[in-house]
Amino acid sequence: MANMVTEGTATLLEPRPLANFVETPFVKEMVERALVYIAAGFPIHFRGASGTGKTTLALHVASKLGRPMVMIHGDEEFSTSDLVGGEYGYRMKKVIDNFIHSVLKTEEDVSKRWVDNRLTIACRYGLTLVYDEFTRSRPEANNTLLSVLQEKMLDMPAAKGEESYLRVHPDFTAIFTSNPEEYAGVYRSQDALRDRMVTLDLDFFDEETEVAITEAKSGLKRKDAEKIVRIVRGLRESGVCEFAPTIRGCIMIAKTLKVRNGSISSRNGTFRQLCFDILASESSRVGSKSQSARVKEVVGQLVDRYCGEVVLNGTRNKGKEILVREMRQSLQQPDTARTPSCC
User: Fold this and answer.
1) Percent of the chain scored above 70 by pLDDT?
2) Quick check: 155 and 201 in contact, CB under 8 A?
């Protein structure tokens, strides 16, 4: 993102595609759907759990539109003035008339100074508005969006003076993101507001996309990224987590391992501890010791399964538990023994 110009109290941004943004068929299909709805005149709402790529997708879609952008992050302290604008400070005008040398005439005028905020600027100039985590703002603060999204009119406060409403520019586009309502600090949005936007629910990415993202964000080799992703997906599917780990856990493990210049192996204590720390932290928000112990037990099993090394007849083979079983079977049946393929 590059700064363009400051208008009032808002900095306009020029969205640009990220250099390491991953576009698998899964991601392309989601982006294309969003662009179609925007072209039809509807605002887009990406909804999903933390770590499912909502904000990244929103910014990527904004970059595809090719227009300047303003960004708002939801906050429970927000009021309507934080979106529309308000009176910030004063403007003072002083006139000194000394045309007649023996007479000094002065005139002072002090008035409040109105400054447009980001929503007003976006509506006035036809910019792209990205409202990140909009349900973290109180519902009453977002009431002004109802007329903006439906009637294409922005109601201006009486303090604005010269205009009571603003007609929304035809190029104005709104992109929203939000977490599920059960998350702490999230408010239930108005039904009327959700009815005015197209909601695209984001779940976990497919394995191909998660591997590609982990590889791109960390710089690890693909085969190493695949192992990390399999560990995280295995924990997600185990059912022991209070909160399922996301692609964010994969990236954190991969980046930290890259910094440590470590290897992905069940015999590498550093790698094992990284998986314990990051995945136990991401999958449990309460901090229960018993829950953390269960998660670590499963993570340990997954590390052994996908990154384990077994020595057989002097040969080291990496593989899953199924390969270990095959090797044990081959010992029992030496005439049909075979060397299992590497994972």
Assistant:
1) 79
2) no
Residue type, 210: E
The closest alpha carbon to 184, from 239, 141, 243, 241, belongs to: 243
- Residue 98's pLDDT is 67
Task: Spell out the domain ranges in the chain.
Answer: 2-84+116-202, 207-328
Rounded to whole angstroms, what are the CA distances from 312 to 36, 227, 302, 326, 337? 56, 22, 21, 12, 12
Task: Give the type of residue at 57.
Answer: L
The C-alpha atoms of residue 194 and residue 146 are separated, in whole angstroms, by 9
Name the token pair of 283.
């999958």
CB 228 within 8 Å of CB 250: yes
Helix ranges, the chain (H): 25-39, 54-65, 80-84, 118-125, 144-150, 191-194, 207-218, 222-238, 247-260, 269-283, 289-307, 321-332
Token reading at 1:
């993102």
Which of 82, 87, 85, 60 is closest to 72 using CA atoms? 82
Q: How far is CA 262 from CA 120, 259, 271, 316, 335, in A?
A: 50, 8, 7, 19, 40
For residue 106, CA distances in Å to 92, 113, 321 come to: 13, 22, 91
pTM of the model: 0.76
Rounded distance between C-alpha atoms, residue 298 and residue 300, angstroms: 5
Question: Which has the closest alpha carbon to 242: 183, 283, 185?
Answer: 283
**Of the candidates 26, 27, 19, the residue with the CA atom closest to the CA atom of residue 1:** 19
Q: What does 317-334 look like in DSSP terms, one character per residue?
A: EEE-HHHHHHHHHHHH-G
Q: Does domain 2-84+116-202 have CATH number 3.40.50.300?
A: yes
DSSP 159: G
Of 44, 58, 82, nearest to 1 by C-alpha is 58
What percent of the chain is modeled with pLDDT above 90?
51
Q: Which residues pair with 167 in a beta bridge?
A: 153
Residue 70 and residue 121 in contact, taking contact as beta carbons nearer than 8 Å: yes
| Dihedral in degrees, nearest 10, Cα atoms 258, 264, 267, 271 | 40
